[in-house]
Design a protein that fits this description.
By secondary structure, the protein is α+β, with helices and mostly antiparallel strands. Helices cover 47% and strands 23% of the residues.
């Protein structure tokens, strides 16, 4: 098992043990919905209220991960309006990061409610749907994300176009979706 897969397993096992609804996102989800590629971090979304967050952070630390102390005081990072915390560990001389998004927005709550059970590299976990992965990648909009969307569109022949249109409008990324998939 490579170090990224070890981090992935740690967090899936933790959230399942704590009964915290989660969904795997990012490059690991691309492996399930698109063309597998290397990834160097773990991205997840969790549904936990802020009162429970401190206990979850404590459990993450007990696994040996570093979590910044400012999260203990209620502060969270944000990217494109999506709140998240970071957990890191050092394996084989390099830092491995888990970005843990908090399902506090309507979109992330929808993503959690639509998650699917699937297998990534022989390990069963809850994953975002192909549609939600595409939307996340449209929000990030980096060259690697656009390539991931193309790979997912290549592999997924049957997508919920109405869902994609609805959320891409709400998230303000419809123009990006239309450029990559004009028929939606």
């Amino acid at each position: 098992m490579n170090p990224v897969e070890g981090v992935f397993h740690d967090f899936v096992k933790l959230f399942e043990r704590l009964d915290v609804p989660y969904a795997v996102m990012g490059g690991l989800a691309v492996r399930a919905h698109g063309i597998p590629r290397p990834t160097y971090d773990v991205d997840l979304a969790i549904l936990v209220d802020r009162q429970q967050l401190a206990a979850v952070i404590n459990e993450i630390r007990q696994l040996g991960y570093d979590v910044a102390e400012q999260y203990d005081k209620g502060w969270v990072d944000s990217v494109s309006g999506l709140p998240f915390i970071k957990a890191a560990t050092f394996i084989e001389g390099r830092s491995l990061v888990a970005d843990i998004f908090l399902a506090e927005t309507d979109f992330l709550r929808s993503l959690i409610s639509r998650r699917i059970r699937d297998t990534v590299n022989g390990f069963e976990a809850w994953l975002v749907t192909a549609e939600d992965l595409i939307l996340l990648k449209l929000i990030a909009n980096r060259p690697r994300d656009i390539a991931d969307i193309v790979d997912v569109l290549t592999m997924q022949l049957c997508l919920d176009d109405a869902y994609l249109r609805l959320w891409s409008d709400i998230l303000g990324v419809r123009d990006r979706l239309d450029r990559l998939r004009p028929e939606t």
